[in-house]
C-alpha cells in the first residue's frame, strides 16, 4: 500500500501534515467524589514540566471549535502540541495540524505514528482524544522512558482460534481477522529482514528489529500469540520505542485494525507488560452510556479527583452547548491547576 505525507502551510502559523493512503472507507466504577471542588490546594506544577513531550490531541469528530479551549487548558504545561483530524479545519488558525484518513476513528493511532515520523526530536509522544480531560499533574512523575497505558485492559483473543469474547468489535472487518492479517505481515517482514541481513553478510542495518517485536508479543502472551483490547484514548510512547511503534502502526493501519485492538496489541510488541506505567481514569461513557455522558455535565464533577489521570467524554463545545459554560469550566480547572503541585513531596 502506498503511503506518505505532505507538509504545507495553510497560513503563517498553521502547518498541515496530510497523510495519504489507499484505505477504503467503511461504514466500572471508581469512587465518587461528591464535592467537585476537591482538595487541590496542596499540589503547583513546574513550568515547562512537559517541554520534552509532544502532545498529540486527536479529533475523531470534527469539532475543531474546541481548540482554543484545549490551548487554554494545556499549552502552558505542554509547549509542544499538535492536533490531528480527518480534515483541515476551516479558516486561518495558528496551530499545528496533522490530517490523516482514520476511518471515523478506527485507525486514529495513525496520528501518533505520523507525529513520530515527522517530529522525531522529542523524549516521548503523548496521545489523547480531544474529548478526554487529562489531569496532567497526576502523570508528572511517571517514568518518561517507559510506555504509559490505561489500566483498563479489557481482554484478549488467541490468534487463529474462534473468538470467545462477546465484544462486537472482534467480529467486524476491523477486529480479530484484521489483527491476524497484520500479524501475518509481520512474520513475512521478519523473514525478509533476516534474508536481507544474510545477503548483506551482516552489513544490513535496520531501525526496527521485527523479531524483537514478535518475541515480545509471544512473551507477554505466555507462549501464545494474542490480540488484545483495551482503553486506547490515552497512551504514551517514549522515543526508545517510537520507531518500532511507527513501523508497527503502518502494518496495523494497512489492515485497518480497530484502535482499541491495535494499540494494546502494538504495545505488547514493544516491551514487557510489567515495565509499562499504568494510568487510571474514568470512562463515563462506559459507565452511563455515551449519550448521557455527553449531555450530563454533572457527571464530570462527580468523578474528578487528583488521583485519576483522565476522564472522558468531556464536551467542551458543541453547536448546541452554551459556550459560556465551556469557558467557565475551563477557568475553574485552570484555577485548580495554578494551585497544584505535581511533586510527591
TrEMBL record:
It comes from Pocillopora damicornis. This is Uncharacterized protein.
Amino acid at each position: 500500500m502506498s503511503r506518505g505525507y505532505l507538509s504545507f502551510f495553510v497560513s503563517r502559523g498553521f502547518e498541515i501534515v496530510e497523510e495519504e493512503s489507499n484505505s477504503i472507507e467503511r461504514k466500572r466504577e471508581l469512587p465518587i467524589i461528591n464535592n467537585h471542588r476537591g482538595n487541590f490546594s496542596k499540589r503547583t506544577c513546574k513550568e515547562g514540566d512537559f517541554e520534552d513531550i509532544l502532545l498529540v490531541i486527536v479529533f475523531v469528530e470534527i469539532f475543531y471549535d474546541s481548540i482554543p479551549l484545549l490551548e487554554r487548558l494545556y499549552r502552558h504545561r505542554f509547549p509542544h502540541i499538535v492536533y490531528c483530524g480527518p480534515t483541515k479545519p476551516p479558516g486561518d488558525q495558528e496551530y499545528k495540524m496533522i490530517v490523516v484518513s482514520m476511518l471515523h476513528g478506527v485507525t486514529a493511532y495513525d496520528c501518533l505514528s505520523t507525529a513520530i515520523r515527522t517530529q522525531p526530536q522529542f523524549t516521548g509522544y503523548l496521545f489523547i482524544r480531544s474529548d478526554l480531560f487529562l489531569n496532567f499533574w497526576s502523570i508528572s512523575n511517571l517514568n518518561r522512558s517507559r510506555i504509559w497505558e490505561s489500566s483498563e485492559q479489557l481482554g484478549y483473543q488467541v490468534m487463529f482460534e474462534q473468538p470467545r469474547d462477546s465484544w462486537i468489535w472482534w467480529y467486524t472487518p476491523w477486529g480479530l481477522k484484521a489483527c491476524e492479517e497484520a500479524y501475518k505481515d509481520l512474520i513475512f517482514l521478519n523473514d525478509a529482514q533476516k534474508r536481507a541481513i544474510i545477503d548483506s553478510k551482516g552489513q544490513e542495518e535496520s531501525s526496527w528489529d521485527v523479531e524483537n517485536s514478535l518475541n515480545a508479543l509471544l512473551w507477554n502472551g505466555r507462549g501464545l500469540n494474542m490480540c488484545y483490547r483495551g482503553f486506547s484514548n490515552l497512551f504514551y510512547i517514549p522515543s526508545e520505542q517510537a520507531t518500532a511503534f511507527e513501523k508497527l502502526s503502518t502494518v496495523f493501519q494497512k489492515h485497518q485494525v480497530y484502535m482499541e485492538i491495535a494499540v494494546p496489541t502494538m504495545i505488547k510488541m514493544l516491551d514487557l507488560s510489567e515495565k509499562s506505567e499504568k494510568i487510571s481514569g474514568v470512562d463515563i461513557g462506559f459507565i452511563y452510556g455515551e449519550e448521557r455522558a455527553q449531555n450530563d455535565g454533572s457527571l464530570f464533577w462527580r468523578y474528578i479527583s487528583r488521583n485519576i489521570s483522565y476522564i472522558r467524554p468531556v464536551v467542551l463545545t458543541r453547536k448546541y452547548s452554551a459556550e459560556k459554560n465551556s469557558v467557565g469550566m475551563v477557568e475553574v480547572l485552570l484555577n485548580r491547576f495554578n494551585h497544584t503541585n505535581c511533586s510527591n513531596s
